[in-house]
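FORM 7B: Structural annotation worksheet

SECTION A. Query
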Amino acid sequence: MLDLFLMIGLPYAALIGAIAGGMWRYRQDRFSFSARSSQFLESRQLRLGSGAWHVGILIVLLGHLFTLLLPGFWAALVSVPAILLLVEVGGMAAALLSLVGLILLLVRRIRSRHVQAVTTTADLIVVLLLIAQVGLGLVSSLRIGHGAVWATGTVVPYLWGLVTFRPDLAYVVDFPILFKLHLIGAWLLLLLFPFTRLVHIVSVPLDYLWRAPQLVNWAGVRRQRHAVEQLRVADSRRAFLKGSVGVAGAGALLALGVSEKAANYFRGPAPDPEAETELLQKKLVRLQQTAEERALELERERSALILVAPYAELSEQKGKYFIDYAMAPGLAFRGADGLPILRSAKCTHLGCTVGSDIDADGRILCPCHVSYFDVKTGQPNAGAPAKLPLPELGWALLDGSGSVVTSKAPGGDVRGVTDPQLLATCTLYITRPAVA
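SECTION B. Predicted structure
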């Protein structure tokens, strides 16, 4: 019920509030649509913070808008690994840049008494909410990953469902809590939009295109203060140059004093028999581990059967992990009919290992990018990043004498005895397709 309100009710309430609030504000106080400039009160931190914020957030918003308007083209674009890496690194850098800009703007409003005097409670709320929103988006991209890929199958259909008045909660109900908070933050910003300075985004100063030019001259005390300030800047530059020359000279003298140590550093340390012996031992351990892994792979290639577990250890609610012939993870379950179900545990999206717990709908979750797979069929849920089902693996149940009691090939029928009492004494193995 809470998800229904936050993911469906809140978006429509925010949209209605934004439209109605914007119209009310325009009728009551249309001149407040443009933000009050505080550049004359403090401009240094404004330049740094505002520039970083606007550049970063424009890149982030353009990426979101491009994904929403052209999901098919975007999905094909990010299917190339190099482009996906470039998109994710660029998006995170832009989000980090906008976050730094917001923090600088918040510090400016708190530290400058002149700016603080014209700051309202709504201004602080908006800045804090924007910081939380950008921070949640950045953390979500780091924790969940590859959002540019799976967003086209989850977030985009959810948003278009809202636009077309056919909302579908199934696309977002299983999202991690971080991403749900990110969506809720977007709706809250939309709801507050007409009642804060954010409304200046829709204020386009078209009158400036044909307004007569204006010339502003400073005179009197203000002009004198400006001239004095320019002199101070010039003196500061001269002092900086003198200091730079002094630091460069001191650095040169210091370099001469430590030249021998620097040469020894780049030449490398003198041979140490004990250190070389320790390094060789570490290399030997790694080689032994590699040899053991290769021996295990060779043994599996030669074996017709690979042990999974005693049949009695299988569960209908939680899978049991094992390693298949390709040295990849697999999962074994006990089906509702009492027979084993064996599937690859390697997600068909980007190869993550899926979870072993079965939910109420008979599905297991890939936690990397939120894909659900039906245990019986292996099929992913609609709109999931994964498009292919989890492969089924062949299996055989052997009794104490090593004879095959029951077996099943991938996609084939069950062959053999299905008596539960007999199966309870058997041991489960995976088989090659030709053996099952």
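SECTION C. Observations
Strands lie at 305-310, 320-323, 329-334, 340-344, 363-366, 371-374, 395-398, 404-408, 414-416, 427-431. The first helix runs from residue 2 to 29.

SECTION D. Sign-off
Analyst initials: ____
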